């Protein structure tokens, strides 16, 4: 059973700040080690720049931010799964392959949907130019 001091320690400001520090480190690490995530961040910057250029609506910006967050989050999860599988086994195993392929597939589905959403948002602006 956890004591009251243990509970206070896990909910202290220092513990919360430490959690944010680790999470921020995870974001930076995913960017530094991930080739694909750099592509996603670059695409996100281009898309957001286009949003500013075309002066899209607030709702359209919200949709873009949610879509971008989804793709980048899934890419980070994919990276974590790939690294974990690599840590567990260096041998070929069908379940390791499945885990990696399914995680990569989730990113692909998300990126395809993001592209479709981007098209729906931007094509009217582009065609009216």
TrEMBL record:
Top-level taxon of origin: Bacteria
Pfam families hit by this protein: DAGK_prokar
Main location, first listed in the record: membrane
Cell compartment(s), UniProt: Cell membrane
The name this protein goes by in its record: Diacylglycerol kinase family protein
Biological process annotations from GO: phospholipid biosynthetic process
Residues at which ATP binds: 22, 82, 100-101
Keywords, sorted A to Z: ATP-binding, Cell membrane, Kinase, Lipid biosynthesis, Lipid metabolism, Magnesium, Membrane, Metal-binding, Nucleotide-binding, Phospholipid biosynthesis, Phospholipid metabolism, Transferase, Transmembrane, Transmembrane helix
Originating organism: Turicibacter sanguinis
Positions that bind substrate: 75
The keyword RNA-binding is annotated on this UniProt entry: no
Gene Ontology annotations for the cellular component aspect, listed alphabetically: plasma membrane
Catalytic site positions: 75
């Amino acid at each position: 059973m956890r004591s009251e001091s243990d509970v206070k320690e896990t909910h202290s400001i220092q513990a919360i700040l430490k959690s944010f520090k680790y999470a921020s480190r995870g974001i930076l690490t995913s960017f530094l080690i991930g080739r694909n995530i750099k592509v996603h961040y670059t695409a996100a910057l281009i898309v957001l720049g286009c949003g500013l250029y075309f002066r899209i609506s607030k709702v359209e910006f919200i949709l873009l931010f949610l879509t971008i967050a989804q793709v980048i989050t899934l890419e980070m999860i994919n990276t974590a799964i790939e690294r974990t599988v690599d840590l567990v086994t260096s041998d070929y195993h069908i379940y390791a392959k499945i885990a990696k392929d399914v995680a990569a597939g989730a990113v692909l589905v998300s990126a395809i949907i993001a592209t479709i959403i981007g098209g729906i948002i931007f094509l009217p602006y582009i065609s009216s130019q």
